[in-house]
Every structure is written in structure tokens, then in C-alpha cells.
Amino acid sequence: MKKILDLISEEMKKAFEEAGYDRELGKVTLSNRPDLCEYQCNGAMAGAKTYKKAPIMIANEVAEKLADSEIFSEAAAVMPGFLNLKVKEGFVTAYLKEMESKDKFGLDKPEKVKKIVIDYGGPNVAKPLHVGHLRSAIIGESIKRIARYAGHEVIGDIHLGDWGLQMGLIITELKERQPELIYFDESYTGEYPKEPPFTISQLEEIYPTASGKSKEDKAYKERAMEDTYKLQNGVRGHRALWKHIIQVSVSDLKKNYANLNVDFDLWKGESDVHDRIPGMVEYMKKEGYAHESEGALVVDVKKDTDTKEIPPCMILKSDGASLYNTTDLATIMERMEEIYPDQLIYVVDKRQELYFEQVFRCARKTKLVEEDTDLRFLGFGTMNGKDGKPFKTRDGGVMRLESLISDINEQMFQKITDNHEVEEEEARKTAKMVALSAVKYGDLSNQASKDYIFDVDRFTSFEGDTGPYILYTMVRIKSILAKYKEQGGNPETVDLQDSLSPSQKDLMLVLTKFTGMMESAYEELAPHKVCAYIYDLANAFNRFYHETKILTQEDEQVKAGFIALLKLTLAILEDCIHVLGFEAPERM
Q1: β partners of residue 39
Q2: Could you tell me the end-to-end alpha-carbon distance of the chain, in angstroms, rounded to an integer?
Q3: Could you tell me if 395 and 329 are in contact, meaning their C-beta atoms sit under 8 angstroms apart?
Q4: What is the mean pLDDT of the chain?
Q5: At residue 52, what are phi and psi to the nearest 5 degrees?
Q6: How many CB atoms lie within 10 A of CB 425?
Q7: pLDDT at 394
Q8: What's the mean pLDDT in 443-472?
Q9: Helix-strand-coil percent breakdown of the chain, rounded to 5?
């Protein structure tokens, strides 16, 4: 379905052409003075030099051609040569009716369905999720949903940190505490226990303890490196313990991500590509891509056109150990062979940009990807406290994600129960939904690449540019629709009608922008555009609501038209908050 701006521009281009001017001058944009007009065209200004005419003369000639337009109710030429435009109510109503009849409100299906892998999340196993994991999860989940809504095949991969020294450290510490465990008897050939010898809370204490010891005790670190080597070389007991670590950690991670309404299609980690690394390294050597430099194996990725220094991409350290670069390249290799994606999107802290530039260049140079494979780095900014510094607990530590969500849930519960008499179970459920909207909208309403202040008080407010305000608006619409049913009306049989007031028309015009916004949000990987749109839509609805007697309207046909408009507004809001990753309660 054509976007409304394209239809309006076509009408304007036709008028320019009929007036004897280049039709491409007829591009229409949204008005930057909504108090004067709804749309505007500055083509007469652009054409003045070419046609050696005063812009106002061109504008007047074009306006005359629009006198009988089926789209414009007003096309006024104003000094020094602008065309101020208003569209007919009937045109807007017909457009919305067509939107309403179409799947996804008329959003065009892609000419080519892309296969996209989104790499987001990236937690390390055996460590609790903390606030530093929040942005990757929230932004990645929304990008995944937006791309799916746009019609593409999207696979989300968490890319776990589940390999390397951290695993060896845990195994070493377990051995010190429980040397009698059967896993450490290398002569044992039987089955290992199905139940892990630790809980998630014990595991989360073991890792920092082991990490601290390794920094102070050289012999301890050497034992941990030896245990890492044994794990990576397939020693049975070490592998069995490692599987327990993964089992316990992933179970806890799934629970915590579920609380954020975030899920992954793949739960793969660095370990999944460990066996691919030797073959990949051999290939890079054989094809002449990799060479030794100061004992390390590297691939040069610098280009003659570079204006800044791009260091070589290191594949193996001088001791032969692999690095993050190695596993990321092997992961790209695996994804290309098993999934064959058109696009790979990495949702990572923006401070990793140089690292991913190296990895992407290396993947291209070594032909791990096709020439037309799109490798995209979506770097996000820092989540800061009110002091402008990275968000911390009151005592200065890194806050666990579980604690943050729990605190905000409790805050929303108190707000809901302070304002209304409501059963605790329903209040808890509602509080959880509203709190999630506060956290997600608070993050996603910012451009991803920018740092932002995580202000709990502002994010949880029911007023202003917040998630709770959006949900409150939706609940208000649901309440009106429910009362209309109680009056004997049927929202399923109502029809949209022409606007009767400026606020009604404003609401209808915001609704017409949906497909253009969603297309732009996908193309630019920009969830903040969805947030900006639904804030405008909520504001437009609330203006209409406060100026209009909806349920007390005596003319039943007019009332039915209002209800149809509310129903469409709610449906579009629901699709928008779905791609942002939260949902609305029935009441608040």
C-alpha cells in the first residue's frame, strides 16, 4: 500500500507538470508549521532559478491546477513561494479504511525476504546478569521484532561467553572445595551424576572468588589455565562439570530474560565453534591471509583509504591461544555455513566499534562471507545514573538486573495500590507489565548510539514521554470500548467516518503515518522512531478524548465513527508496543 505522503506528492507532481514545470519539484513534506497547514511543498522555491520566475508566481500557477483536487481541500500559495496544503477529510478517511482492511495496516511486504541473524545479549555463564546487559537485550529484542514485522526471517542468537579461562577458574575452585568429587578422578569411566554439584547462587559466588584468587596467587592461576586446557581438550570430568555449569546458568538466564520479555532462537556460545577454529586457522594460513607478527598470527585489515589507524586482526596469540576475534570469526563461518544469512547484526556496546571493524574486515578479506553479505554493527551508548556516570547501586557496586527489575516492579505496585482499590494479585501482574514498559520505553525512546540517564522516577511516571503514559492511554481506550459494549454497541461493526473536529483530524493524520514510520524504523534499525510515533499518537488521542463527548454523543452514527477511530488507534498502538517488547494490561 502506498504511503500517504507518496499519494499526496503524486498529486502535487501532477499539478507541477500540468503547470509546465518539472514534476519532481512536487515533493511534499509534513508541515513544519502545523498551526498553518498540514503539509507543505517548497518546489516553487527550488524551481525559481531554473525557470527564471519569482517563486510566488510558480506557486500560484500550481495552486490553480489543484482547485478541483480530490486530495487537497486547500492549496494556498504564500510568500515568498511556499505551498501550504490541507487534505480533505474524505481522502483521509478512505486511506484509513484501506489501512484497516490490510494486513499490518498496509505495510508493504519486502521485495526480497532477507535472512537475518541478530547477535545480542552476550552474557557470560556463571555470572549474574547486571544492568550492563540491559541495553543489548532490550535493543536487540526490539530490532528482531521490527525486522520480523517488516516481513523478514530473523534469528536471534544470545552468543554466550561459555568458554575460556572463566570456566577453568570455576573448575579449579570446585576442586579446591570438593576434591572428592568423582569428576576429578581421571580414571573414572562410569556415568556422571545428572544433578549438578552446585546451585546457581553457589556458582555465582564461586566465580568471583576464583577470579580474585587468580589475581593474587600465580600458582592458582596456572592451575586454572591447566584446567581450562583440560576442558578444551575433552577431559571427561571437566566436560561433564562444564555441562553442569551451562545447564544451571542457562536455566537462570532464561528466567531472567523471560522477565524482560526477551527470548532467543539460538542459545549458542563460544564453545560451539571451538572445534572449527583449527580448520579456520589452517585455511587462513594456506590462502595467505594470515601471517606471523611478533609471534602472533594476524590478518592485516588496513586499507589505503583509511584516515585512522586500524590494527591487524589477531587470530592466535603468541602462545597459540585463541581470542574473542577467533571465536567471533569462527561463529561467522558457522553462521554462513549453517544459516547462510543475508545480514548479520551485532547489538553491542559502541566502545567495541573498532574491534568489530577489524572482525568484519577480516571476515570479508578472508572470504568467510559473501560479497553482498551485510555486516552491521549497532553500537549502543552507556546507561548512566542521574550523576551522569555508569549506573550503580547505592553502595557503588554494579546492580544485578534481577534487583533492578524487582525494585521497579515494587515501585509500580505501590503507585497502583496507592491510587486504586485493587486485589493484590491483579495489582502485582499489572505492576509487572507497567514496570517493563517503563524500563523498555525509557531505553528505546533514546537513539541507541547515545548515552542516556536511567531516571527511575521519570520512567515510571504516568505523565510525559514514558511507557506508563502510553499504557495508560491504551487502557483508557480499552475502557471506552468496554463501556460502549455495555451500552449495547458492537465495536466490530462500526465504520470510520470523516472528521468533525481539528483534534479528530489530527488523530487520523497521525494514524496515516504508521507504515512510513515502521518502514523507516526497520531500514534504520531505530526503535526510537516507534517510541516517538506512539508518543505523538497517544498525545493526539488524548487531545481528541478531552475535546470530544464520545460515549455521551447522541447521534449513534457519529458515536460509532468515534468508536471505529478508537479501535484503529488501539490496534496500531498494540502492534507498536509489541515490536518494542511489552504489552498493555486491561486496566490500571
Answers
A1: 30, 85
A2: 36
A3: no
A4: 95
A5: 50, 50
A6: 8
A7: 60
A8: 95
A9: 55, 10, 30
- How many whole angstroms separate alpha carbon 111 and alpha carbon 224? 53
Which residues are registered as beta bridge partners of 78?
A: 82
AA letter at 313: C
DSSP-assigned beta bridge partners for residue 40: 29, 84
For residues 353-385, b (16+ Cβ closer than 10 Å) or e, as one string? eebbbbbbbbbeebebbeeebebebbebbbbbb
- Residue 380 has φ and ψ, to the nearest 5°, of -110, 155
For strands 383-384 and 452-453, give the pairing: parallel
Predicted local confidence at residue 396, as pLDDT: 60
Residue type, 530: V
| Separation CA 210–CA 305 (nearest Å) | 46
Beta strand 72-78 with 153-157: parallel, antiparallel or unpaired? Answer: unpaired
Q: How far apart are CA 503 and CA 424, in angstroms?
A: 38
On the 0-12 / 13-18 / 19+ scale of CB atoms within 10 A, 321 is: middle
Q: Extract the C-alpha cell encoding 58.
A: 510558480
Chain centroid to Cα 171, Å, comes to 36
Confidence band of 53 (pLDDT split at 50, 70, 90): very high
Q: Which domains does the chain possess?
A: 4-87 (3.30.1360.70), 165-259 (no CATH), 438-580 (1.10.730.10)
Torsion of the alpha carbons at 141, 144, 145 and 146, rounded to the nearest 10: 120
Model-level pTM? 0.94
Host H or E run for residue 375? strand 374-380
3-state secondary structure 345-367: EEEEEHHHHHHHHHHHHHHHHCC
Determine the pLDDT at residue 391.
78
Query: Locate cell 609471534: which residue?
Result: 295
- What sign does the CA torsion over 579, 359, 331, 375 have? positive
| Separation between Cα atoms, residue 103 and residue 75, nearest integer Å | 33
For residue 28, the cross-strand partners are 41
19 secondary structure, DSSP code: T
Answer whether residue 419 shows pLDDT above 80: no
Closest CA to 457 of 412, 400, 401: 412
Residue 184 has phi, psi (to 5 degrees) of -95, 0
How far is it, in rounded angstroms, from Cα 312 to Cα 282? 18
What pLDDT was estimated at residue 568?
98
Which three-class secondary structure string do you get for 55-90?
HHHHHHHHHHHCCCCCCEEEEEEECCCEEEEEECHH
- Please report which residue ranges of 276-352 form alpha helices under DSSP H: 277-286, 324-338
Confidence of residue 420 (pLDDT cuts 50, 70, 90): confident
In order of 121, 349, 401, the CA distances from 205 in angstroms are 22, 26, 16
Are 414 and 460 within 8 A, CB to CB? no
**pLDDT higher than 70, residue 393:** no
Kindly tell me if the per-residue pLDDT of 561 is higher than 70: yes
Cis preceding-peptide flag for 80 (omega within 30 of 0) = yes
Phi–psi pair at 273, nearest 5 degrees: -110, 5
The answer on pLDDT for 588 being more than 90 is: no
- Whole-angstrom Cα distance, residue 437 to residue 424? 20
Phi, psi at residue 512, to the nearest 5°?
-65, -15
pLDDT of residue 569: 98
Which secondary-structure segment (H or E) carries 469?
Answer: helix 467-486
